[in-house]
Input
Amino acid sequence: MTIPKNVKNGLLHLLILALGALMLYPVLWLISSSFKPTTMIFTDKNLWPSSFTLEHYKSGWSGLRNIQFGNFFVNSIMLCVIAVFGVVLSSSMAAFAFARIDFPLKKLWFALMLGTIMLPGHVTLIPQYIIFHELDWVDTFLPLTVPKFFAEAFYVFLIVQFIRGIPKELDESAKIDGAGWFMLFFRIILPLCTPALVTAAIFTFLGTWDDFFGQLIYLSDIKKFTVPLGLRLFLDSSGNSNWGAVFAMSVLSIVPSLLIFFAGQRYFTQGIATSGLKG
Amino acid sequence: MLRKKPLFAALATCALLLSACGNANDSKSGSGAASPSASAKASEKPSNVELRMAWWGSQERHDKTLAAIELFEKQNPNIKITAEYSGMDGYFDKLNTQIAAGNAPDLIQMGGNIMEYVGRNALLDLQPYVGNAIRLEDFDQSLINEATADGKLYGVTLGVSQTALLFNATMFNKAGVPVPNGESWTFDDFKNSALQISEKLGKGFYGSYDLSSDNASFTTYLAAHGKELYRSGELKFDKQDVVNWFSMWDELRQAGAIVPAEVQVANPPDAVDKSLIVKGQVAIQGASASQIFGYQALTEDQLGLLPNPAGPAGNGMSPPVSGQFITSYEGTKYPEEVAKFMDFMVNDPEAAVILGSTRGVPPSAKIRDALSAESTPVDKILYDYISLATKISTGNGYEHFPYDNEFIKLLKLTSEKIAFGAASIDSASEEFMTEMQKMLARANQ
Output
């Protein structure tokens, strides 16, 4: 006896749906809790709230003294845009150099650059802080943005792998037509690298959007706070946390990440697959 | 086409310029006088003083503290205070980084870990300001001692707290069990209440959490029976006390009056969001008194506070302790203004009204009396409790066991072994004593 193909497919999809629902449960719980009155968040087990309130969204958005949660979104988005621009531009330039240009000690520099990936962040934290403090950059956005313009090793590696997959003949024909390094980079290589660049952009965006510790260390003025810092404002160790506001603002804070991810998803998988295979 | 080369060159040079950046901040507060380490800019009467103040807390605390700062700035127009506040997450990581870089705030809120920072010479000695800028006459001596090391004061208590039994009054009412009188209740009363509540309310409801694992309850029990956990290098109890303690809880466990082990592990009482007292399924748990705000906010049931039950030697509780301190960074340029603000936080009646009990009950008795007129119902429960606890505490003072964290873990482990039936009370108590003796030997070496 054979099982018809569409039944088999249906069963498979049912299984996948069930697993998906299981994974989604915490997110659904978060969304549902953000609409429940505070006294019911931890006592009412139903996902569908029996009494519905928008209070948490109001108190989370404008309940803070002297500041609105919207400011945190503006700051976070600004940081993310600068970080994405800086990382994509500088990393792709470095990657192009490593992949296409011959210069002395190229292998050594490449190894050193990869070495920075292995260095744990905790080791460099305090020296870095001291440098930025001496520059008088603490409590500004500079420590969080300027380093992004010095390329990040992981993305350089990713893009190098991708560029190596682009036929050299293209470079040569461009050179014959009189293109210099910059023309070659901006006109030929960069457009062909789009999937890798989008991957780097998405990773950078998500990394910056979710970064808590770096932003905590360098930003102190509440007017400069970002979303991760803003969310923590509602939490207190002694049990006086405003859970409702935390949940409501958390729901809002995942929206940009989701939008970016869905918008770039096609390139995202392509970028990983192509650069990974050639590695 | 963009030419990036000049920009890169500029940035690279800039990075190379950052080599010399150690902090030469070596002043020690050894000379008795205040020794602000920082630059010579600090003059006698600075016209424009900028202070930075860091604290962690909830939104309510942020709002109230900011309002108090505004009031202070109005009274002292030459001083401006920049607030640096955050949640608890990462607060000390950030502080450690700032201290390492010599860039810590002038005013720092501290918790029970104040001595760790005293040991690192990170905090300013406040002793020169006591009696003039900082008035502590209305403070209980024990609160001052907590922030004192080698005769020097390093912090001013912002709020007082005390261990307590948190109870769900609505459950007592539902079960028709009278709420005990905290001043006189005994371990027998406690057992009876727990048994009656679980009996009347039926399956899934319990009179109390299993507090046999709770170190505060255990040490109070010992003191209530004329013993002590530890004093001057010796254990002041014996195996029989441990057996009695666990037997009392086992009796309640067999009768179904306390939370079974597997339920307790999944719903620990100290996690506000998981506590079954909030869900109205357990009537009594241990807590720090000021935590009542957090628990009450999550439930419509009426909560209350009780002292630990009394034994033959009285109640056995220690006097209230300090919850949080305001301290100052050792490298501050303006120690006098810092001292002035500290005094303002704890002794100014207007500030007290603004701050309320957002950092625990105000430490000054005078301020507490002034406040009780305008307090909320939960405030009143807390104030009344602190006053009661101060009155009935035997005042002997609790001496921390040298390996306090390990003792707490050991007690919990022993309690769970018995509760899960993995060891008999006798053998578990025997093992508990052996381990305690081992730690003691290690500490006395």
In short: The CA atoms of residues 403 and 442 of chain B lie 9 Å apart. Chain B has 17 helices and twelve strands.
